[in-house]
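Budget justification aside, the reviewers requested a transparent look at the raw inputs and outputs of the sequence design task funded under Objective 1. We therefore reproduce one unedited record. The lines immediately below are the structure tokens for a 428-residue chain.
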């Protein structure tokens, strides 16, 4: 807002006469009469203060211009457009533009509305107060123009995992220039913006370089615009389409308990997911031929009547136009009497090789050998003690081994006949 002092009251009267001359015939006479009556009553204006406020409005909406006077003494208030054409002289509208409407007129205020504001309405509007000396103040109308179009463009409709693609977003014909923000899902990313100005309007283009992976498939890339004429979020989005090589997983469907014994059947199912979906899934036996009694049916591998010759690594391979991958299953067939829990086969997909599962049967074999060795040791010790057990004799029985009867044995025992009587026992 600014104010100025006009040169003289005669010049103000002349300006008012020009405004009356530009008015329609119906209002011209009334303005001239008003001019004559007010020209003779122009006061000194000491202590009066004319003021107004700047206006910011969105294109197409309504701007309100208010010329206000402190300590009014009924001086004439006039509103002029940026071309110095009179919009209102007191409560009369000489200008033919019907978008201007009088909202309030009094000795202290002239308030006018301007509907359907356009960019051409921007500029300084002048409030004049016919005092001596006259006073003038101006208000600036600023028109905000929201972006007319918001477009997002992806360099490639379909990308391959690991590839870097270019995404562009354009916000056209706004005032002032917009601010563009990027999001991938809920994560904000940083782009690079360029601004072009044409006839007081701005076009902003933002570029985003994005390296995609398989987790980005189906995730939206969002271009969001921030502008003072826009309330809420103005945005547009495109969904990423990413192709990726297969992910392979082997699932044991039989036996249910997971323990593979001799004579049992084994059924494995290969699950392969990729984009595009793998059209071929193949089973092979690593470093050996597939058993003759193995049955292959699409993603399923079935081996009936298992035996130890079936031990080995079985591989499921899958491929699509992006690449190929595989997963391995290590089979170990237990004896029919085995009660050991089966090994857990971790079948993970890989490009050139997979992580093989740890076979706990090796640990079980070591434990069995130790137990067997302890049993053998106990048997050997038992036989040793049994051999050295022998027959024990008393001193009295020495030399009586070859006696024909008990009496003879007593006689032949150590001590001879002298002790024979003492050694005899009689039973009654």
């Amino acid at each position: 807002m600014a104010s100025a002092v006009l040169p003289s009251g005669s010049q103000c009267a002349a300006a008012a006469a020009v405004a009356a001359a530009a008015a329609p015939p119906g209002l011209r006479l009334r303005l001239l009469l008003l001019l004559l009556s007010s020209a003779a009553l122009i006061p000194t204006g000491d202590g009066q203060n004319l003021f107004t406020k700047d206006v910011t409005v969105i294109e197409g909406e309504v701007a309100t211009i208010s010329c206000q006077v402190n300590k009014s003494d009924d001086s004439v208030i006039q509103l002029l457009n940026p071309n110095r054409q009179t919009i209102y002289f007191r409560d009369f509208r000489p200008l033919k533009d019907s978008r201007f409407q009088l909202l309030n007129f009094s000795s202290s205020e002239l308030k006018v509305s301007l509907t359907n504001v356009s960019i051409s309405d921007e500029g300084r509007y002048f409030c004049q107060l016919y005092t001596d000396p006259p006073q003038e103040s101006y208000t600036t109308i600023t028109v905000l123009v929201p972006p007319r179009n918001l477009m997002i463009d992806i360099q490639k409709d379909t990308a391959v995992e690991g590839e870097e693609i270019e995404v562009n977003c354009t916000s056209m014909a706004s005032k002032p220039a917009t601010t563009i923000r990027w999001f991938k899902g809920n994560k904000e990313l940083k782009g690079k913006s360029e601004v072009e100005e044409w006839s007081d309007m701005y076009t902003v283009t933002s570029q985003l370089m994005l390296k995609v992976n398989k987790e980005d498939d189906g995730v939206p890339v969002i271009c969001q615009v921030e502008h003072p004429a826009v309330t809420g979020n103005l945005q547009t989005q495109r969904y990423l389409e990413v192709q990726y090589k297969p992910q392979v997983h082997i699932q044991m469907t039989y036996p249910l308990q997971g323990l593979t014994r001799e004579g049992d059947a084994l059924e494995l199912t290969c699950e392969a997911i990729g984009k595009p979906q793998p059209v071929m899934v193949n089973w092979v036996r690593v470093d050996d031929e597939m058993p003759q009694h193995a049955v292959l049916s699409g993603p399923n591998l079935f081996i009936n009547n298992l035996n130890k010759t079936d031990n080995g690594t079985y591989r499921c391979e899958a491929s699509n136009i992006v690449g190929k991958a595989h997963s391995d299953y290590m089979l170990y067939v237990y004896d029919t009497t085995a009660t050991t829990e089966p090994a857990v086969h971790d079948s993970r997909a890989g490009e050139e090789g997979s992580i093989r599962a740890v076979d706990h049967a090796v640990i079980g074999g070591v434990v069995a050998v130790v137990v067997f060795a302890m049993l053998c040791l106990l048997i050997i010790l038992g036989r040793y003690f049994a051999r050295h057990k022998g027959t024990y004799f008393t001193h009295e029985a020495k030399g009586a081994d070859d006696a024909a009867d008990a009496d003879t044995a007593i006689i032949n025992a150590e001590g001879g006949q002298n002790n024979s009587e003492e050694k005899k026992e009689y039973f009654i």
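The helical segments are 9-21, 25-39, 361-387, 406-412, 420-423. The first strand starts at residue 2 and ends at 5. Computational costs for records of this kind are itemized in the attached budget.
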